[in-house]
């Protein structure tokens, strides 16, 4: 995967990056409800699972925007990846532990869904934290807390506050009046993303959920 180093001398965001990384280092989190009223029944009707659909939707949006694909190369230079793959948690029901595995992204949801199922079949029962080896550096984390419909979720990453990628947590969907809502929390480093970017991500997630018929292939 291609990594594009950023020319810090010409980067328009450099003053913000320097301030929020060196002077007032901070992350921020935001939780929003995504309306999946259209999405959920369409997935079920066509034989697809919700979790990989949400993973695919998040990865699609991540790969649209440079701000979400920020990272460091092996020499410590700041830049962005050409595209990214999702790294996500899976739950082991018997002992209540979890593993984190990654799946190569594909723009076609059906192809990605098949890759997800294949990875789950191979690695889903292995009781290790990271059972699938050779995770590339261009992944971003997604986790799921399907037992509770939270209204806020704050994840504290103690790595000197330099982790650039967004971190996502998905909650349990619930019914409200005639709608089905799903909590989505995103944690971002303020040095590379602002409230605008978090809002854009949520808005685009909602657009994908509403327009499910445009990207969901019919099952055969």
Automatic annotation (TrEMBL):
Transmembrane segments: none annotated. The keyword Transferase applies. Keywords: Transferase. One of its GO terms (molecular function) is chloramphenicol O-acetyltransferase activity. It comes from the Bacteria. It holds the Pfam family CAT. The active site is at 190 (proton acceptor). NCBIfam families: chloram_CatA. It comes from Brevibacillus panacihumi. This is Type A chloramphenicol O-acetyltransferase.
